[in-house]
Amino acid sequence: MILVTGGAGYIGSVTVELLRARGEEVVILDDLKRGHRGAVPAGVPFYEGHIGDADLVARIAAEHELESCIHFAALAYVGESVNEPARYFDNNVTQATALLDSLLKAGVRRLVFSSTCATYGEPQKVPISEDHPQQPTNPYGWSKLFCERIMESYDRAYGLKFVALRYFNASGATENLGEQHDPETHLLPNVMAAAMGRLPFVSVFGDDYPTGDGTAVRDYIHVADLGEAHILALKHLREGGESERINLGNGQGYSVLEVIETARQVTGQPIEARMEPRRAGDPSHLVADAQKAHTLLGWRPRYPDLAAIIRTDWEWRQKHPRGYDPA
Ligand SMILES: NC(=O)c1ccc[n+]([C@@H]2O[C@H](COP(=O)([O-])OP(=O)(O)OC[C@H]3O[C@@H](n4cnc5c(N)ncnc54)[C@H](O)[C@@H]3O)[C@@H](O)[C@H]2O)c1
What distance separates the 2 farthest-apart alpha carbons in the chain? Predict the structure, then answer.
């Protein structure tokens, strides 16, 4: 049985869907602060609570035979982390450390961890490979980098084997699961909200970055491709593989304005963009060198094309106009 923390969230729920399609058994732990009960499939054991609650994790381990953990649960907004670092370090580091201790107590020594390109900070060279220096520009990135370092120490001392997957920008949807956050700070859901007439315009934070059109450049990766990479990372650990840090991206950068323009083409809607000042903590340019994921895990993204990724998101919103909210 795999413990999936944050399995009611965006990437976690899609990964659970893919794991179940492979016949894997999962149990979900999520406090539902940012996730949705409706994103948890019927029949999957679900525990509502914090990853830092040692008694709860011990109870889950007593009620299910855990062999590994995929740890998604975290607060994940750059801007929020700049304003509320204490909350981020408590949730993402202190609670995560307690989770690791609970896992070790339960005899679980395999962990796939959601890390992030935000651990690199402002890049010295692009595309970014795994050996690029890590110098985060915001507390969110630091919280994930601290977790990487803690897992390295736990590997050395206690034999915890982990794969830290450093995702670039998750995006897109499957037929039944998509991205819905409140508040929403990610670009694509806000672009879609503007396309659906729910927002009057999309805010573009900063047009004076050292990029082609001055807006920030990111590498967009489909959420199902991310999910597949977790399954491959788990396979790597089950086969006795060493701890690894692996980038997940498409290796292609798109500026904010390019994303909005592509979304206009996909949706046929006139999406208005408004320039605003830069947001604190945002690097200018984040594009992955994902060669290691290809060679070490055998990972092949099915959605390398931005328009195809955006189309899956648009289709999900057309099919589920209220998202996970009750009708
Ligand atoms: N979305 C991205 O582009 C992106 C990029 C890089 C890394 N990540 C990382 O991937 C993971 C998943 O991201 P997401 O976009 O699916 O976020 P999400 O907010 O949709 O999912 C996270 C889930 O974790 C739960 N959670 C948070 N703290 C918890 C705690 N202390 N105890 C129990 N549950 C808790 C939330 O309720 C939520 O359901 C996060 O760790 C995030 O940092 C995301």
Answer: 56
Name the active-site residue from 10, 77, 120, 140.
140
Q: Is 140 a catalytic residue?
A: yes
> What's the confidence (pLDDT) of residue 281?
81
Output the pLDDT for position 199. 95
Pocket test for ligand 1, best of 33, 91, 163 (most atoms within 8 A of CB): 33
Can you give the pTM of this predicted structure? Answer: 0.97
Q: Which residues pair with 218 in a beta bridge?
A: 254, 286
CA pseudo-torsion sign 185, 291, 284, 218 = negative
Which alpha helices (DSSP H) does the chain contain, by range?
Answer: 10-21, 54-63, 78-83, 85-89, 95-105, 139-158, 187-195, 223-238, 256-267, 291-297, 306-319
DSSP 183-199: S---HHHHHHHHHTTSS
Using CA atoms, how far apart are residues 29 and 302, in angstroms rounded to an integer?
A: 28
